[in-house]
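Two quick folds needed for the group meeting slides. Do the first one here.
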Amino acid sequence: MRRIVVVLAMALASAALSPLPAGSAEWPTRPVRIISPASPGGASDTFARILAERFGEKFGERFIVENRAGAGGLIGAAATANAEPDGYTFVTSAVAYVVIAPAASANPPFDAMRNFSHIAYIGGPPNVFVVNPSLGVKNMDELLAHARQKGLLDYVSPGVGTLGHLLAERFGQEAKIKLQHIPNKGGATAMVDLVAGTVGFGSMTWTSALSQIRAGQVIPIAVSSSERVPEFPNVPTLKELGFESLVATTWFGLSGPAGLPQEVVQKLNQATIETLQLPAVRERLKRDAIETKPMTPQEYTAFVAAEMEKWGPLAKSLMRAN
């Protein structure tokens, strides 16, 4: 905890001392890019395009989404960390890109607190524990009993180092059951294995599993959200089931390089909050069970620091094991 306070204080002090360049009051005066460290079509890309469209309308300048996938998001995030802090390069930051991937890397290309100005929290979907009906379990008690009887339970996730992977491993530690990870290369292929019955248990984002949950092809037994998902009110949260440390979402936000003018940071923070409150956007977020809440830049910075403290050590230990 002390480390969070020290690092956070350094980051906020650096931001507070950032010089305000001449002409920043007129920003933007040329096209702005928002880097998505993922391929088109994913959550990072979707959020980037929602913000870009709204920002373009609000600020009267083009906001262009640039997809720069690779290395678990490190490539796109690093491109932003190394950009000039002039207000023309931003990134859809995320738990995967600025928390898990750097912690899992032997030589991360940036420091998530020192090399970024964290601007606004967007939100994200919870993760869900799902099972194939053939496993013969319908709730958490039955899953735990099955795992203890078998001695070892295989599970699938979207991949090594994803939040689904980390959640399942921490769950196994706290529940005192043995799990064996069957990694995949994304949520879609993970769901194929789960639906086919190749693996009986899975830990993945709600959005990855939702269509198969609706179709009855998999059974949701717990979600990592802070409250139950309205569409499936009978599915308990992990917190309710006694796993309070497993409250988590695959969250996204907006960040830029360290040293951004505070006027630009405040403008984009307010614009992001306004965008997330638009009726069409709110409906879309609700449909995908995406949890969001307004945060100031300082609150989002503190949130990122807390997530690093929560997931960083586990990510490092799992990467050593692999």
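Then this one, please, same format:
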Amino acid sequence: MELKNKKDGVIRESNITQEFVSEVANKLGSIPEVETIFYYLYAVLHSPTFRERYKEFLKIDFPRVPVTSNKKLFESLAVMGKTLTNLHLLGQNPFDESKTALDDTKIWAISTGSKDPKGIADWQVAKIKEEERYDSQSKRVYINGNQFFEGIEPEVWGFQIGGYQVLDKWLSERAKEKRSIADDLKYFMKIAVSLRETIRIMKEIDEAIDAHGGWPIK
């Protein structure tokens, strides 16, 4: 099977086999688009219950994603999977231009600020202790002791991917080079918003599955 990006004319081959598409079609009684199947898979893989329930298997083998025969659940999860995909690509999904929280800065609830930036290069990321980097009470992420981002929840700051704390890792890499992020302030905020929305949607994925019989998915 092939997917064609209408924007650039590039042909991309899908790694979802025809056999799997047929399996999904037999379960649902209709043939969904390949992109929809991908979004469904992406949603299930972000289910906190799936990750916990099968964590021992996930340590030793590729994930095996169950296919539901419930068309309503399939479609609901696919919608959430699409939203997650667009968030994780920071709104740059070449196959979809759906709006996400990234498109509305009014709902980001994240701002920048400073106490007294004198004597410090503008938004230069400094090497500071982890406990000084983030203040859970003020919800501030400090860049150099004086300049900071405000409005970042503790669960967003602590969110990990692949064993790395995402926001801290991003800043730590730039601190090594003493880089200024003056031109990347919006980019950092988009990452934080993406993580915040990911946490919310992951909970909604589990809620949707629970509402349709829970695990194992049927």
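Slide caption for protein two: Strands lie at 2-4, 11-13, 111-114, 134-135, 140-142, 147-150, 160-161, 164-165.
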